[in-house]
């Protein structure tokens, strides 16, 4: 979906998962289905698979979780040893099946299937140009815009040039798994905003948003797809070719993938997400540790952070001095129990429902908190609903003091590139200081992690990260928003074949 200023806040912003496989002689549908299961956390609204059997394309796209979207017969009808898959979760707007993916289309020079994670910033402009050239659109999503642009280029040039020209035309965030007939492609935008990685299977190759999907298929992670790179899998599963089609001076990796969105067991841009989260927790202790009786995570999102925080707290005191040997530091406890059958609080549409969902989802263990000073660790505060409810719950269970430590900086602005972050009006930190937020959530103390600590934990310079949601300045040109670097000017004419 196209991005824009605050006026665009009611439009869907897709946080999605993509996968593609090319196998030697074995049907791709089942591995794709398993991989989508591994990526389920990246989208719960719809799931789909497109395969190609060498003659024709097959597609099955349905609303719901992966387990509900496919029946055994559906997988059998998805013939062919190459294909792609997608899980999608639009955060607002209609639950329109025409936006569910993979998007598939047949045209003069073959068939295309497209799975997209991210958001373009110039989709409207490209759509208008294509519509003027006679392309008819069936959805208002930006994925279809990419498909049509690619289809148009493919009428005139070979696959690699066609992809390159589409990459020069579209701007914004995109990790793509594409089928062109029985060839599977992976493309990552030139800034590498969303993750995409390449893996080897026993009898083929796989492209996936996260390496956890490769693990699920008993495969081996080869590496991340590089920003601006095209990877083409051989249709017979025997190998792959890569082309560095676009180069940029900086990257814009989304730091929030590491903080919240990705699975902790995934390796993204070379780092195991779990270890990054533990390191963020360590830094949280170093920056703002508080001596309390117990430290406990908000399950599951705060767990790795709390473990790093408690480890660092066992080594040094909150003042940064080595901890004396007779001082055990802070007890780490699982003081909050999670009802695993309640979905993410975020998907509740009204504030009232969101508050109830937190109570349904989390319950304190009285003996861990009663009469104690307690530090609760979570990865992020978005609207403030979870923290407000938790502080209250933990106090009601008898805690004497409740401190809150957050493993990310304050989220002050929306995400336009694939993560549902709520609107500016809803974001508690958009117009409040940390002290005002502390008062609002009634914690005894509250600290967030600094942006510099995030960059250090990711071993990246700030200039190579997308920090839009914590600075309000974006790496792509979003209408009505500030940018943090010189951004590309989208070309309005079809680019000349320069290669
Ligand atoms: P909130 O209650 O709105 O402040 O949201 C904070 C809680 O939601 C934290 O426990 C986070 O782990 C979790 N969270 C953060 N970002 C997201 C997101 N984009 N989608 C769903 N949950 C999120």
Question: Any key phrases for this structure?
Answer:
499 residues, alpha+beta, Glutamine Phosphoribosylpyrophosphate, subunit 1, domain 1, Rossmann fold, 2 domains, seven-stranded antiparallel sheet, six-stranded antiparallel sheet, 28% helix, disordered N terminus, disordered C terminus, binds adenosine monophosphate
Protein model, in words:
In the C-terminal section; belongs to the purine/pyrimidine phosphoribosyltransferase family. Residues 488-499 have a biased composition (Low complexity). Mg(2+) binds at residues 301, 378-379. Its EC number is 2.4.2.14. The protein is of the alpha+beta class. 28% of the residues lie in helices and 24% in strands. Strands 3-2-4-1-10-9-11 form a seven-stranded antiparallel beta sheet. The chain binds adenosine monophosphate. Adenosine monophosphate binds at residues 260, 298, 301, 344-346, 378-387, 419-421.
